[in-house]
From TrEMBL:
<dbReference type="InterPro" id="IPR008183">
    <property type="entry name" value="Aldose_1/G6P_1-epimerase"/>
</dbReference>
<dbReference type="GO" id="GO:0030246">
    <property type="term" value="F:carbohydrate binding"/>
</dbReference>
<dbReference type="GO" id="GO:0033499">
    <property type="term" value="P:galactose catabolic process via UDP-galactose, Leloir pathway"/>
</dbReference>
<keyword id="KW-0413">Isomerase</keyword>
<dbReference type="GO" id="GO:0006006">
    <property type="term" value="P:glucose metabolic process"/>
</dbReference>
<comment type="similarity">
    <text>Belongs to the aldose epimerase family.</text>
</comment>
<dbReference type="Pfam" id="PF01263">
    <property type="entry name" value="Aldose_epim"/>
</dbReference>
<dbReference type="GO" id="GO:0004034">
    <property type="term" value="F:aldose 1-epimerase activity"/>
</dbReference>
<comment type="pathway">
    <text>Carbohydrate metabolism; hexose metabolism.</text>
</comment>
<dbReference type="InterPro" id="IPR011013">
    <property type="entry name" value="Gal_mutarotase_sf_dom"/>
</dbReference>
<dbReference type="InterPro" id="IPR047215">
    <property type="entry name" value="Galactose_mutarotase-like"/>
</dbReference>
<dbReference type="InterPro" id="IPR015443">
    <property type="entry name" value="Aldose_1-epimerase"/>
</dbReference>
<keyword id="KW-0119">Carbohydrate metabolism</keyword>
<protein>
    <recommendedName>
        <fullName>Aldose 1-epimerase</fullName>
        <ecNumber>5.1.3.3</ecNumber>
    </recommendedName>
</protein>
<dbReference type="InterPro" id="IPR014718">
    <property type="entry name" value="GH-type_carb-bd"/>
</dbReference>
Length: 368
């Protein structure tokens, strides 16, 4: 009962914070009009750095079981390095995260042709998605009871082929001494449009420079996945994980499950939650035994993409560290990939005047 109460309290606290900032003064950012900066949030032993380029998480420093502090987020040394990033390190992606088949969809009888950026398909909003624009900082409090920063961006009608003007607000908030809340909102101003944002941080609980994450244990509370073809486009099926390498209903070491998947994990899980529920529910738990760090993820979304960084190849990161395949994992809560082309998937369509609301809550702890 205590945990439920705390989650409900956090849910409404974040809603109140982002709603208050929805009417903040100042116009939303558009391409090239905002100065790029780095902003720090600090609460207890937790320190976080973000940049308004892509509303990106650059670092998150946490103590391990011995009190040693490490940065558990992959990334680069400076904000300008993210302008040439092709990995989506730490960024917010959209207008529609993940993949859209053939970079097109039909909505209310109108076919929309998007801008492809992964062969014939669209990935994470196209070549100039939300990860590649400067956001406006509408509110910033470095420390105090709930250190937070709020970013705003106006995605204009026709951007990357999407219809309608869409006003987006993203906030990062440190709560207590062990929680990070992420809120992503998008309001359709004038036309019906799809909206499905994702936060694309690469996590390594041993430290960003500690090697691969194959020894980390993960539990994913999703008993089904949405299988894909060779181009990672969903087939439209929803298949059980039981008896497959994708079964993480009980905690398993990532390396023990990855052996039969040469390319690693890059799949959407259908989370086990009540149909239509909008409350925060646990999606996944990650445990790094060497450091003792534990990360629990809660969300109000129906799916989570589990990606083990198989496409990382000699990426030069912070402090000269070179990131290789499986150097980190991503847990991107979301609607399902290519939902716009699969009527049986949860809808990501937002009507004029409606607001898309996406919340993630990370809870960090240590085990001896």
């Amino acid at each position: 009962m205590t945990r439920t109460f705390n989650l409900i309290s956090i849910f409404f606290f974040v809603l109140a914070l982002t709603s208050a900032n929805g009417s903040s003064s100042g116009s939303e950012a558009s391409h090239g009009k905002e100065e790029i900066g780095v902003y720090e949030l600090k609460k207890g032993n937790v320190t976080m750095k973000v940049t308004n380029w892509g509303a990106t998480i650059m670092s998150l420093v946490l103590p391990d079981k011995k009190g040693k502090l490490d940065d558990v987020v992959l990334g680069y040394d400076s904000a300008k390095d993210y302008k040439n990033d092709s990995t989506y390190f730490g960024s917010v992606v959209g207008r529609v995260a993940n993949r859209i088949a053939n970079a097109q969809f039909t909505l209310n009888g109108t076919k929309y042709k998007l801008v492809p950026n992964e062969g014939k398909n669209m990935l994470h909003g196209g070549p100039k998605g939300f990860s590649d624009v400067a956001w406006k900082v509408s509110r910033y409090e470095k420390d105090g009871r709930a250190p937070h920063i709020v970013f705003k961006y106006l995605s204009k009608d026709g951007e990357e082929g999407f219809p309608g003007n869409l006003r987006i607000t993203v906030s990062y908030t440190l709560l207590g001494d062990d929680k990070l809340s992420i809120s992503m909102k998008a309001k359709a101003l004038d036309k019906v449009t799809p909206a499905n944002l994702a936060q694309h941080t690469y996590w390594n609980l041993g430290g960003h420079n500690s090697g691969d994450i194959l020894s980390e244990e993960i539990q994913i509370l999703g008993s089904h996945i949405t299988p894909t073809d060779s181009l990672l486009i969903p087939t439209g099926q929803i298949s059980p994980v039981k008896g497959t390498p994708y079964d993480f209903l009980q905690p398993h070491q990532i390396g023990s499950q990855i052996k039969s998947l040469p390319k690693g994990f890059d799949i959407n899980y259908v989370l086990d939650r009540a149909e239509g529920s909008k409350s925060l529910q646990k999606a996944a738990v990650v445990h790094d035994k060497r450091s003792g760090r534990v990360m629990e993820l809660y969300t109000n979304q129906p799916g989570v993409q589990f990606y083990t960084g198989s496409m990382l190849k000699d990426v030069k990161g912070k402090g000269g560290c070179v990131y290789k395949a499986h150097a980190a994992l991503c847990l991107e809560t979301q609607k399902f990939p290519d939902s716009v082309n699969h009527p049986n998937f949860p809808s990501e369509i937002v009507n004029p005047g409606q607001t898309y609301n996406h919340i993630m809550l990370f809870k960090f702890s240590v085990k001896p």
